[in-house]
Amino acid sequence: MRTALTDLVGVRHPIVQTGMGWVAGPRLVTATARAGALGILASATMTPEQLRSAVREVRSRTDAPFGVNLRADAGDARERVRIIVEEGVRVASFALAPSRELIAELKDAGVLVVPSVGARRHAEKVAAWGADAVIVQGGEGGGHTGDVATTVLLPQVVDAVDIPVVAAGGFHDGRGLVAALAYGAAGVAMGTRFLLTSDSTVPDAVKARYLAATAKDITLTRAVDGLPHRMLRTEMVAELEGGAGRLRALYGAVRRASRFRRLSGLSWPGMVRDGLAMRHGK
Amino acid sequence: MRTALTDLVGVRHPIVQTGMGWVAGPRLVTATARAGALGILASATMTPEQLRSAVREVRSRTDAPFGVNLRADAGDARERVRIIVEEGVRVASFALAPSRELIAELKDAGVLVVPSVGARRHAEKVAAWGADAVIVQGGEGGGHTGDVATTVLLPQVVDAVDIPVVAAGGFHDGRGLVAALAYGAAGVAMGTRFLLTSDSTVPDAVKARYLAATAKDITLTRAVDGLPHRMLRTEMVAELEGGAGRLRALYGAVRRASRFRRLSGLSWPGMVRDGLAMRHGK
To answer: Is B4-195 a domain of CATH 3.50.50.60?
Structure first.
């Protein structure tokens, strides 16, 4: 199947595997690339060194194109952009819209820039700044975007911009791909569906929880990192949301941050800087 | 275009004009029927006498099939069912799932029963009770249904039941119809799009408000009648939601109920009964 997305990126199928933190590592991205779709490494949960090594690992296993997702508001975003450019990564995707300067720097180096957005005006903005394509995520998606449903948001964005539009939020099978193409999208991006594949490193127990869940088990919460996040209503979410009093909330936040720091290898000053940037980010 | 819906109902296009209170009267339904889609009279804002006269008015202007929407939990639901049967209306649709007995009574009289649902288990329930088709409304729809987005809910329901599924919630043009068919639906149901036609009796000033609105101007509120309702964030909604104190809220509720009663011609006891039924309804 040939669309504006397959032509742009050089993949066989108009399907994007999104950059999910922890989940989208070299193993999943390599498998996705080999299967003919666009895999995206999640770099927010990697140090710059880990990112470089992950890129090289994918590159050593396949010649197919792949991408790297980064947070435009991360303190070390420029360092990560340099790694992407130096390593010759095909696509840079962003969870939050990047600045005009960051887009220009990547494009000058021949990297395709594909931001994720949750509103029509954000799509118009990044398109005007030279983005090569845009991933539009409806409110039913898991990422940090808006609350407008895919059926409403997607046709609006397709009408508003001339670059290829990739539809995200609620897509999980071939029927969804056809529906997205009907709306004028050039392909679909999926997260959860890839999280549940055998190439995902997510533990089987977690996959089982997802498979057993129904739509009623999904919640929208800001309790995890301050930004709206659509996810399974797990014990952790219940604990975070039910915490009585600000002191307990602060204690919980520090404890979680500590754990996140240990797991991610990020520094405390870097985390505080990123946390403040996320709070102020749009 | 031929689908399971056009075959079932005998319409030329797999499109349903929903039974919007106040809006879906004889004029709009006649125009819809003549255009080849399925128009549905909204009976909740009519007295039984007004309903009978509206049905006769449409019948006098077109031979094409049309439907009547009613509240299964209304105190006089059986009286309205009798009118539908006596007047030979083709389709009975329901905003809330009807009882097994009500479905049986309508089917015995040769009326097609098409409930609206917002959850897979409700679709399974009414299908098991003999409903002829089901309108599945995603969370982005305006009616009183659930909060699961169309992209997630629709394929679930299509997989779960064997009767024709009509997709509602976020559909507004031909692209949406193709998308719905891709998911396996037999057609789409639309409200707002018909509200904005020249055959809608809604005042031009109101249509202008809709046309000027963006996705950001939509709100989900229980302030109007106690059930979740997705609608324009108007001054009225702001006033209802911002009302300080329970006394003021009670005063406002009585004032609005009084106005609703005057406009609808319903009796006070009937309104109170219906209001309690809605509160207890699922």
So the answer is: no
pLDDT at residue B280 tops 50:
no
Beta strands in chain B (DSSP E): 15-17, 38-42, 67-70, 91-94, 112-117, 134-137, 165-168, 187-190, 218-221, 229-232
Q: Does A182 touch chain B (CB under 8 A)?
A: yes
Task: Answer yes or no: do B151 and A138 touch at CB < 8 A.
Answer: yes
The whole-number pLDDT of residue A258 equals 66
Taking a C-beta distance cutoff of 8 angstroms, is the pair B44, B69 a contact?
yes
CA distance A242 to chain B (A): 22
Q: How far is CA A196 from CA A191, A212, B240, in A?
A: 9, 12, 44
Spatial CA neighbour of B154 closest among B164, B170, B145, B167: B167
Higher pLDDT, A54 or B260: A54
Domain residue ranges of chain A, discontinuous segments joined by +: 4-195, 214-280
CB proximity A252 to B under 8 Å: no
Q: What is the pLDDT of residues B113-172, one digit of tens each?
A: 999 999 999 999 999 999 999 999 999 998 766 789 999 999 999 999 999 999 999 999
- Cross-chain residue pair A175–B182, CB shorter than 8 Å: yes
Q: Which DSSP letter does residue A185 get? A: -
Chain A residue numbers with beta carbons less than 8 Å from the beta carbon of B178 are 179, 182
A164, A186 Cβ separation under 8 angstroms: yes
Q: How far is A236 from chain B (nearest CA, A)?
A: 22
The whole-number pLDDT of residue B235 equals: 79
| Contact in structure between A220 and A228 (CB atoms under 8 Å) | yes
User: Which three-class secondary structure state does DSSP give residue A60?
Assistant: helix
A139, A153, A182 member nearest B175 (Cβ): A182
Question: Between A67 and A265, where is the model more confident?
Answer: A67
B170: nearest CB among A151, A175, A215:
A151
When CB atoms are compared, the residue of B156, B176, B182 closest to A151 is B176
Mean pLDDT of B11-18: 98
Cβ of residue A156 closer than 8 Å to a chain B Cβ: yes
User: Quick check: A212 pLDDT over 50?
Assistant: yes
Separation of alpha carbons A56 and B2, rounded Å: 53
H helix count then E strand count, chain B: 13, 10
